[in-house]
Design brief:
Shape: globular
Largest sheet: 9 strands, mixed
Number of helices: 11
Radius of gyration: 19 Å
Number of strands: 11
Length: 393
């Protein structure tokens, strides 16, 4: 465990907001931001004039012509006028990057109350446009028209995994089990894009409804294209928080996968170690985790990155039920990116909001039995920008 000092301030999430994720044709980036801004402030019981700073997460990468969303929250509340507002971008980890910037603003002493908003509008674009935009996060393929987009990069990861661990005969079934788990969980999430219990058989079978997308990855192995927004309010020394932030970690890796062992998720492990070390806990102390399952192979590698199993044995975590709702560490009770959806800039904010709801006993049909400590893991690129947060109820 990396030695890290405890978080030097008591910071809590005091309010959250969440739109449905999915195809939202009548919404715009602006309307989504306005909705969650208003709802998060109401949920927190915070007046707009009490907010000291605002961070807005959006990846964009050309998905929408308008790429300057930092002041959009003012449209929801004129009283936010004049507050410092900043757009934050770190690929698919943009949402957690914004949350961590909010935490840092409070730690700096320049803010006591921070609003964090994550948003993305994607479904209006063609599949080719979305693929090209997401490839803006890869230095080799940026600007190209790769037909498989980011799925192709994670397909390479899956093929490397199968080769190293002689997994050709079983990897597809394990990835299908992860997908089926998350789709089952997503049925209980009122904001999830795909609320359908697809089952292992459907997820493991290549068909017209579940075609191969790239390499061994089927449609059910890939998170969907999504619109949506989420928001939360952070506060120093809160009286009645939904959850307290007790540990944070952030670590970046080489962009070039040739310069690292891509199956290690090494910088992701470092980020998690930093967060756990700051919180003074181990993985065994966690009651739930929301992790970045942009593709099912990513969730499998996260099991191993967290140390739930040795390398090459992550299958045990799902096959033996460890990561199911009633397992020793429920993973992606929300349905994860796989079923909940993945509006890129909103994802990390959503993960924090949903863990906070779990820890406060306000997660509705998703609610676990009395969780006390949760982990958020959010990454950009192929485990390039890695964020981890430990929250306590």
């Amino acid at each position: 465990m990396t030695a890290v000092s405890p978080l030097p301030a008591r910071i809590g999430i005091v309010g959250v907001a969440h739109t449905p994720f999915g195809r939202l044709p009548t919404e715009t980036v602006g309307s989504l931001v306005e909705t969650v801004t208003s709802q998060a402030l109401i949920d927190a019981g915070v007046e707009p004039e009490e907010v000291d700073e605002v961070f807005v997460a959006q990846f964009n990468s050309g998905l929408t012509p308008f790429a300057f969303p930092s002041s959009l929250p003012i449209e929801a509340a004129d009283e936010l006028w004049g507050r410092p507002m900043t757009r934050v971008e770190n690929a698919c980890a943009s949402g957690s990057a914004a949350v961590h910037q909010g935490i840092r603003a409070i730690l700096s002493g320049l803010a006591d109350t921070v609003l964090v908003v994550g948003v993305e509008k994607m479904t209006h674009a063609t599949g080719a446009a979305v693929a090209q935009a997401l490839l803006g996060a890869d230095p080799r393929l940026a600007g190209t028209n790769s037909p498989t987009g980011f799925a192709g990069l994670f397909a390479d990861v899956a093929q490397d995994y199968a080769k190293r661990y002689a997994a050709d005969d079983w990897l597809g079934d394990v990835l299908a089990a992860i997908a089926a788990k998350n789709h089952h969980n997503g049925c209980s999430n009122p904001w999830a894009q795909i609320r359908k219990d697809l089952g292992v058989e459907f997820c493991s079978t290549v068909s017209d409804s579940n075609p191969l997308v790239a390499g061994p990855l089927r449609r059910t192995d890939c998170s969907p294209v999504s619109d949506g927004a989420a928001a939360l309010v952070l506060r120093r020394d809160p009286a009645d928080p939904l959850a307290l932030i007790t540990g944070v970690g952030h670590a970046n890796d080489h962009l070039d996968t040739a310069r690292r062992d891509v199956l290690e998720f090494a910088a992701g492990r470092l980020a998690v170690q930093r967060a756990l070390g700051m919180a003074g806990i181990d993985v065994d102390d966690l009651d739930l985790a929301e992790v970045h399952d942009c593709f099912t192979i990513a969730e499998l590698l996260v099991y191993e990155m967290l140390g739930l199993t040795p390398r090459g044995q992550g299958r045990r975590a799902v096959e033996e039920g460890w990561v199911h709702r009633d397992g020793r560490l429920p993973v992606n009770v929300s349905g994860g990116l796989k079923a909940k959806g993945h509006p890129v800039g909103a994802t990390g904010v959503s993960q924090h909001a949903l863990v906070a709801l779990q820890l406060s006993g306000k997660a509705g049909e998703m609610q676990l039995d009395g969780p006390r400590v949760g982990l958020v893991h959010n990454m950009g690129g192929v485990a390039v920008a890695n964020y981890a947060t430990v929250l306590r109820g």
